[in-house]
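Today's session is about reading a structure prediction critically. Students often jump straight to the picture, but the first step is always the sequence itself: look for stretches that repeat, for charged clusters, for runs of hydrophobic residues. Only then move on to the predicted structure, which in these notes is written as discrete structure tokens rather than atom positions. Here is the chain we will use throughout the hour.
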Amino acid sequence: MLAETVVALKAHLAIHVKSVTQSIQFYRKMFGIEPSKVRTGYAKFDVQNPPLNFTINEAVFEDAGALSHMGIQVASTADVLMIRQRWADVGLVTRDEMQTDCCYARQDKTWVHDPDGNEWEVFVVLEDNLPEKETPKATACCGPDCCPPAVTASHV
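Below is the predicted structure for this chain, in token form.
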């Protein structure tokens, strides 16, 4: 019997937000597109680049959930800077980490956070498979504050 190949169309990510209305404003700016569907307590963004079926669902919660962060990997530092500029142009506050060692890789990245504090990064991997470093037990690697960056700056 031959195994059939399934071609995935895109990843799906659904997150809880406290206010769909506030979150639509943020994600409209972040993705640069309008939501493809909006209902009471729900919105969907059909992102083409990168291919992503992204939905926000209104829910009641106290603190941030178990989600660490979300990210979009790009091909170059120039791409990181281009997206950072686009985000700044629409009024999003960015935070850069250039030449930072995180997730056992050297990266250039910029961060934004949505109205509920969910962190998004756009990053390029400059060097991969770095050796493991000693880190404080309370610090999780690969999060928005995992590793001290060589250069950090905020924009807008």
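Discussion point for the tutorial: The two ends are 58 Å apart (CA to CA).
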